Each structure stands twice: as C-alpha cells, then as structure tokens.
Amino acid sequence: MIKVIIERIIADDMESTYEAQLKNTLTAVMGAKGFISGTSYVDINNKNKRTIITDWQNIECWKRWHKSEVRSEANSQIRLMLAQEEVVKTLESQPLA
Q1: What is the pLDDT of residues 8-32, one digit of tens each?
Q2: Which of 59, 65, 70, 72 suits a disulfide with 32, CB 3.0-4.6 Å?
Q3: What is the per-residue burial (b if ≥16 Cβ within 10 Å, else e) of 45-67?
Q4: pTM over 0.85
C-alpha cells in the first residue's frame, strides 16, 4: 500500500467553491482501480492550505489515476482555484526494525 499526499493552496475567497468541486473529484476517484481511501484536511494555521491524503494499493494504480482523463476533467476546475500548483508526494511504508 502507498500513501499519496496532495498539498494545495486555495486562492482567497474560494473555500466553499473548492469544497464543492472537491466532492466531485472524490466521487470520481472512488471508482478508480486500486483506490482504498482518502481524507481532506484544512491547515489549522492557514485556512487556504489543504492537504489530501489517499491510500492506494500500489504506485501503478496511483499513476494510472493521476494520468487519467477522468482525473484531469475532475480537477480542471480545482486548478483554476489554486494560488499555486499543487504538490504531490508519494510514500511507501518501511519496516521500523
């Protein structure tokens, strides 16, 4: 399993519009092969900073979704609301011992 962390800075006064569009994207991703779960967070110190953490079966499933036309269409409106490009991090767990 991998985690994908997406960090976004939303333009001022776009919070409610962003939240509505994010629901459309989350609906779309639920049908993606290998998607397990996802949660959206608001930075306590910066209401315009959002972090989305998703779990995927493997990196191939994430890459397929990330490059998909469905994701591109779902995120097209979100991109217009951002103050800067989103940052995407992909992580895999490592045993501690």
Answers
A1: 999 999 999 999 999 989 899 999 9
A2: 65
A3: eeebebebbbebeeeebbeebbe
A4: yes
